[in-house]
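PROTOCOL LOG
Step 1. Enter all chains and additional molecules of the complex.
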Amino acid sequence: MNTIAFAGLGAMGFPMARNLVDKGFAVRGIDVNVEVLARLRAIGGEGTVTPASAVADADVLMLMVVNAGQAEQILFGNGLLPALPDGATVCLMATCPPGAVRHIAQRVTATGRHFVDAPVSGGVAGATAGSLTIMAACAHGTFKAMLPVFEAIGQRIYHVGEHPGQGATVKTVNQLLCGVHIAVVAEAFALAAKVGVDLKVLLEIMSGSAASSWMLKDRGPRMLQSDPEVTSAVDIFVKDLGIVLEAGREVQAATPIAALAHQLFMATSGRGDGRADDSQVIRSYYALNGTNADTPA
Amino acid sequence: MNTIAFAGLGAMGFPMARNLVDKGFAVRGIDVNVEVLARLRAIGGEGTVTPASAVADADVLMLMVVNAGQAEQILFGNGLLPALPDGATVCLMATCPPGAVRHIAQRVTATGRHFVDAPVSGGVAGATAGSLTIMAACAHGTFKAMLPVFEAIGQRIYHVGEHPGQGATVKTVNQLLCGVHIAVVAEAFALAAKVGVDLKVLLEIMSGSAASSWMLKDRGPRMLQSDPEVTSAVDIFVKDLGIVLEAGREVQAATPIAALAHQLFMATSGRGDGRADDSQVIRSYYALNGTNADTPA
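Step 2. Run joint prediction.
Step 3. Record the structure below.
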């Protein structure tokens, strides 16, 4: 596994590709954005002329695209799958609904190529540091072959099962917890703001108590700012909690808290704040309560 | 502040009283359970014959009772407040609605006695280890005088404000986060169980990812057991999330996620599991989904 075609050089994909280049892999970029292909060339990768030429002699086609629809378009719509050598591996790392992943896997493996369902967690910071959590589902042999690739971009690498969709499910559950944790911090802070408690003191206490969460510590400080730098956008959780609900529908499992959190992110996006930092879901609570961080009732 | 009347020697109160005894305070127990008074005598405290004699020369009356109603009953119904020396301090450490705390504080301070609103966090483990988080609201001078008492039972001691109710609000927000964090772990695990993901592997991954929370790591392992040891009961969160909703009603702030989590704990209690470990709120999801941890669909 030496030559990697990498599709989707966005905020996550580009630093992942850079880490692969740095570890000695031959990385061939695929992206509609020609500027990002030039950036890839500048750091030692290849920004090839056509996607088909990028995959022509690739061992792996990694997909770090926005959603399952884009993955299907690249593989089947743009005809990249037939251009990929027989016996090569398609590694889908985008966050997708488990059912869609199973469907894509069936179409890929029917052509004799391998498929790895391997979503990641850790955000742009983890992608940049090469410290992503990787939740891979595939046959044992395929996992073993992919391990050097995963080790170049991730730190906590799990083989969660042999069936495509199992990785996506773990990632879905991860996003369920992440999204709800952000929304509930917003609910808690908005209540405290309305009562008139100092949110900085509150954040300090909660960060060290049983009420703490990774998201509280990470998003909490940005939630106290009225327009913080965007680390991850509201619309990412509109999408990811939407995937949670879809995963629930696929197996008819109730996810009422996730559904409620989804509504709050969606309403935030609906008011025009979809590209704001996801901590700003608190604006939905301020809108509901008629308050903000600075004007307790 | 040398002599402490301590009312409410339950799962939390008894180890707190023991830590006070160990640090050299004269501790006089008040409890309807005579066995627990005998236990207090056995470790060096006083299990006095009548509550009035316990408070007669006390510097502080600490209340670690079940709720605001019990605190009111002890102070005003049983006539303990008039028996407490003039200038002594009433320290309410139970989890109570902020409005009820303000009301009790007014009645106490109207008699010339001091009042401290000082709920705690950390559970039985923190009470036993003397490592509680204490969220105190009172006048600066009163806080300073109480500090040696707090340091005997707690590790993270915060003066969150000067007005009674502010401590209760911080504790309320703490419980909002704690209760929702437990419920959403249940929701996530129940979804994963229905899809057929190994919950042990899932717990390990989530514990180290951005999906992590203090509650995930603490309650998660017990959630995988069908009948775990009880560390804190379902009914505690029926009560505490009820207080969250009451705090929200007092200031007319919306707490929709907390309201939903409350419903899930309440339904668990309604099926007869109120005294089960609070991790068993997952049974409400299993009931909803028609599954359990061992029988994925």
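Step 4. Note key features.
Residues 166-195 of chain B form the longest helix (30 residues).
The mean pLDDT of chain B is 95.
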